[in-house]
Write a structure and sequence with these properties.
Blueprint lengths: L1 H17 L7 E11 L2 E7 L2 E6 L17 E8 L8 E3 H18 L4 E9 L2 E5 L4 E5 L18 E10 L4 E5 L1 H18 L5 E9 L3 E5 L4 E5 L20 E10 L4 E5 L11 H4 L5 E10 L2 E7 L2 E6 L21 E10 L4 E5 L7 H8 L5 E10 L2 E6 L3 E6 L9 H4 L8 E10 L4 E5 L7 H5 L8 E10 L2 E6 L2 E6 L20 E10 L4 E5 H16 L8 H12 L1
Parallel strand pairs: 13-15, 18-20, 23-25
Antiparallel strand pairs: 1-2, 1-4, 2-3, 4-5, 6-7, 6-9, 7-8, 9-10, 11-12, 11-14, 12-13, 14-15, 16-17, 16-19, 17-18, 19-20, 21-22, 21-24, 22-23, 24-25, 26-27, 26-29, 27-28, 29-30
Helix pairs in contact: 8-9
């Protein structure tokens, strides 16, 4: 009996030794038999028990969920430790299980569920039901996330971008999921929209060139030029973030899913009435909105702007920047010069609302009027004199002096000198005023020789004796009689026979208005007298001698 018992015991022992004991490093099933001191005691069979920290049964951000009697899978790290217990881990079992599941999901390009539970350099850590993955900062959301606090611990879907089991690396993306659902949402919203539709939207973002408006899951761009008919310098003048606005769908690009929006299209176009309200030649008040190198933009009413070209700004300021004539926001009177409805352009004139200063000058200063002004500029061909009305008149070299050459006379003037002159001509079309300084006090030469003609006999006074002849004066005008003209008798052609102050009768041989000189001759007078005497007292065939004739003529004179 005893032998039999020993045999039975041996058989049982062999049987138990032959039973498959689990391999270390594998996942085994176990049963929770007790919970004590923050640990779960688990029977993994084969007469083996082990302990697992309760926190290993907790999901991120949740309390541990385990109770006595629960069947759980654990990872057998070692069959026995120093205390004779199995070394087991719930976390490692979950990780192995998770990796199997995640590899399958990665192969199928399927989404996986997880929760963000920690922050690391460059991103976050995500628990994918036992396996820890890295979520780069750029993959958290479609737009940069400033505060990821509200996302922590939330169960949500992720897309696996990369995984390497050997290294234990998994990289996931939340952004890919959002973009996909956003694309679906966009396609759904865009499918319902038609060009020309009026819709309500919320202003999400404002930039220099426009605003992004959320139309319920899809954004549209409202360009600054489509916000109002008037000029808008910055979208923030009209809109603020979070504001609800009514917009019209202008264009939908089916390929890029881009939507262009407009606000002004829902308002009346002021250009429809421009032709009626602003007839050509009419004058209106406007406000300067913008100044450029080529002119100034003037707003006639919200949405209707015209350009005053630099050439139409001032009668007198020709090469001046428009900013020197007008300033932004200034109210000005302008005249409508041209309207181009197709190009939505109005050409305006500023100078046309004031009188042409050359016209005004011509009315108030007829030819011959004396004027006074400052020498503004001196050029090689004359002086420019500043006149009233902010205009200039020009004195040509030839109009500076009667007696001096223009080149010499101009040396007497300096910039800033105040001078008198006479208006000689006003050309309104060419915007030119001709002045004369020499004409002040009239033309002495013309006055002096007014009644004198060629052949006239005049009395002159000798003012100087020279070798080549004598200088004489007639009515204040100087002339020179050459030696050969002093007498018809060669012996009498001596200047020294005259004295300064002598009065002499001479014949006028030439009147030169250009050089302002009289040609005078005593010889010509004597020849003319002789001819006259011959005609009066005898003829060449009468036999009378020249002496007789002259004697008779002299007697007759006496």
């Amino acid at each position: 009996m005893a032998n039999a018992t020993m045999e039975e015991f041996e058989a049982l022992l062999n049987e138990s030794l032959e039973m498959d004991t689990p391999d270390e490093g594998s996942v085994v099933k176990g049963k929770v038999i007790a919970i004590e001191a923050g640990q779960a005691i688990i029977d993994v069979g084969y007469k083996m028990e082990g302990r697992v920290e309760l926190k290993e049964f907790a999901e991120p951000g949740e309390a541990p969920s385990v109770a006595v009697g629960d069947e759980v899978e654990v990872y057998l790290r070692a069959a026995e430790n120093a205390r004779g217990e199995a070394v087991i881990s719930r976390e490692m079992a979950r990780r192995e299980e998770a990796w199997d599941r995640l590899e399958k999901a990665y192969a199928d390009d399927a989404r996986v569920e997880g929760a963000i539970f920690g922050r690391v350099k460059g991103g976050f850590t995500v628990d994918l039901g036992g396996a820890v993955a890295f979520l780069p900062g750029s993959q958290v959301d479609v737009r940069p996330v400033r505060d990821a606090g509200p996302l922590m611990g939330l169960k949500q879907p992720f897309q696996i971008l990369k995984m390497d089991r050997r290294r234990g690396n998994i990289v996931v993306s939340r952004r890919a999921i959002l973009e996909e659902s956003r694309a679906e949402q966009r396609a759904e919203v865009i499918g319902k929209l038609q060009e020309g539709d009026s819709v309500d939207g919320v202003v999400k973002n404002i930039t220099e060139y426009g605003a992004f408006v959320d139309l319920g899951g899809v954004d549209g761009l409202l360009h600054v030029t489509d916000m109002a008919w008037r000029r808008v310098n910055h979208p923030s003048e009209i809109l603020s973030i979070g504001e609800t606005v009514k917009v019209q769908v202008i264009k939908i690009n089916k390929d890029t899913h881009r939507i262009s929006l407009g606000m002004k299209q829902l308002q009346e176009d002021p250009w429809d009435l421009v032709g009626v309200k602003y007839p050509l030649g009419s004058v209106h008040k406007g406000r300067v909105t913008n100044i450029t190198d080529y002119g100034a933009f003037v707003e006639l009413e919200p949405g209707v702007e015209g350009l005053v070209h630099v050439s139409e700004m001032s009668w007198t300021k020709k090469n001046v920047h428009p900013g020197k004539i007008v300033s932004t926001s200034q109210e000005v009177d302008v005249m409508v010069l041209e309207i181009d409805g197709a190009k939505r352009r109005v050409s305006l004139g500023l100078k046309q609302t004031q009188r042409n200063p050359w016209e005004v000058f011509a009315e108030t200063h007829p030819e011959g009027t004396e004027v006074e002004g400052e020498v503004k500029n001196i050029t090689e061909f004359g002086l420019f004199i500043g006149l009233e009305g902010d205009i200039d008149g020009m004195v040509h070299l030839s109009d500076l002096s009667w007696d001096e050459r223009g080149e010499d006379a101009i040396q007497n003037y300096r910039k800033g000198d105040v001078v008198q002159a006479v208006v000689s001509e006003v050309d309104i079309e060419k915007e030119r005023i001709s002045l004369s300084i020499k004409a002040l006090g009239g033309d002495k030469f013309a006055d002096a020789v007014g009644g004198v003609k060629r052949g006239s006999i005049v009395t002159v006074e000798v003012t100087a004796i020279e070798d080549g002849g004598i200088e004489v004066e007639y009515e204040g005008m100087k002339s020179f009689i050459r030696r050969s003209d002093l007498s018809r008798d060669r012996a009498e052609q001596r200047p020294e026979r005259f004295n300064t102050g002598d009065k002499v009768d001479v014949r006028v041989t030439n009147i030169d208005s250009k050089t302002r000189r009289l040609g005078l001759s005593i010889k010509a007078r004597e020849i003319a007298e002789e001819k006259e005497a011959v005609e009066q007292y005898g003829s060449s065939d009468s036999g009378a001698s020249l002496g007789d004739i002259l004697g008779a003529a002299l007697k007759g004179d006496n």
